[in-house]
Amino acid sequence: MAQTLLMPKATAIWLVDNTALSFDQIAQFCKLHPLEVKAIADGEAAQGIKGLDPISTGQLSRDEIARAEANPNHKLKLSEPKVRVPESKRRGPRYTPVSKRQDRPNAILWLVRNHPELKDAQISRLVGTTKSTIEQIRERTHWNSANLAPMDPVTLGLCSQIDLDMEVEKASKGRPLPTAAELGATLQSAQETERLTPSYEREEEKEKEIDADAVFRKLSSLRSAPKDEDEEDQY
């Protein structure tokens, strides 16, 4: 991957303000036209842009600037980056090892049953199969349908749990929200909830239902018991 200068116009502004480099040297380094660099120096261009120090960003060294200032014919060179960022590889079709290809129909059956919201293209990405195979398993016309058993593709090692969750989340975004009947919910209507009395009122009603005569009889029996015991001691 070829090195590119970070924010060339902002870097040119900093070089114009802080170095004795020629317009041609700055233009060559920043991939700009010399007249554009001259306009920056005259304050006619890039007035709202803040200069960027290429030394602090590690794109240029002080020694390289000093050599270029001493020699007008010297061309500035970018410094070697300290960290190499690997190039991103294009994601192609998922490769399934030969030893696990026999498990793909079982994984497809598991996905069809447990995640009906997934599209055929998503299942193909997860387990590396074809749409015709998915249709055969859906319609039970697969040559080995009688012997298939649903198995989790993550357990089989055909895909990761993160990939599966991402595909399920994508498929769920376009689905309508489930109804109360689908969820099995039995919500009470507003009229029914208004009729319900609070728990503290129920306790008060229970206290009112207690027989007052029974309470007084119990208290009188407790008071008379000590008197009876005193009378027995006298005899």
Automatic annotation (TrEMBL):
Disordered: region residues: 183-235
InterPro entries reported for this sequence: TrcR (IPR010421)
Compositionally biased intervals (Basic and acidic residues): 192-216
Pfam entry (one): TrcR
Domain of life: Bacteria
Descriptive protein name: DUF1013 domain-containing protein
Source organism phylogeny: Bacteria, Pseudomonadati, Pseudomonadota, Alphaproteobacteria, Hyphomicrobiales
